[in-house]
Design goal:
By secondary structure, this protein is mostly helical. It contains six helices and no strands. It has two domains: 1-86; 106-164, Arc Repressor Mutant, subunit A. Helix 1 (2-31) packs antiparallel against helix 2 (36-105) and helix 3 (110-120) packs across helix 5.
């Protein structure tokens, strides 16, 4: 982006220089009594280069204004994102505490609680076994124990138990 900006500034500078040089040449030719067709041709060249320069300056100013507006938008979105992240962190921390309290209410062991959280996070039984450095069979037994103690039949029912209230109310 910086290279593009530099290229545009160089083109703007060159078009301005061409305009000034053509203008000086036109004035010099006029003063020395140049022919009408030559002066007309250089006048047209001056008008074209002047128009290009003015249009380029206007576009550059418009682009700079647009960049400033976009920077402001990006800053506002960044602040909004950080606010949302902080609120979400607080909500998730509160949800985590509530889930842990419910697990305690169901009288899950510490191992079952860990497995329960990993099930809710969506890990497979093999992944949970790897994370906890246990056998898949152990995780299967702990999962079954969780379902028996909770009265729920599956991982999806376990997740739904906690997430059901997160959905907007139905009319």
């Amino acid at each position: 982006m910086e290279d593009s900006k530099n290229a545009h500034l160089i083109l703007l500078f060159l078009s301005g220089a061409v305009m000034v040089l053509v203008g000086l040449d036109l004035a010099s030719d006029y003063a020395s009594g140049g022919s009408g067709s030559h002066l007309l041709l250089e006048g047209m060249l001056l008008a074209i280069s002047g128009t290009f320069f003015v249009v380029a300056v206007k576009r550059l100013l418009h682009a700079n204004k647009e960049i400033q507006l976009l920077k402001g938008d990006v800053e506002a979105f960044s602040r909004e994102k950080e606010t949302w992240r902080e609120e979400t962190r607080q909500l998730l921390a509160g949800l985590s505490v509530k889930i842990e309290k419910q697990f305690a209410h169901w009288m899950l062991t510490q191992a079952e609680t860990e497995v329960g959280f990993l099930l809710l996070k969506g890990f497979s039984l093999k992944e949970i076994a790897d994370i906890r450095k246990t056998q898949v069979k152990t995780v299967q037994q702990q999962s079954q124990s969780i379902y028996q103690k909770t009265g729920l039949a599956s991982r999806s029912q376990l997740a739904a138990f906690f997430l059901e209230d997160l959905l907007p109310p139905r009319d």
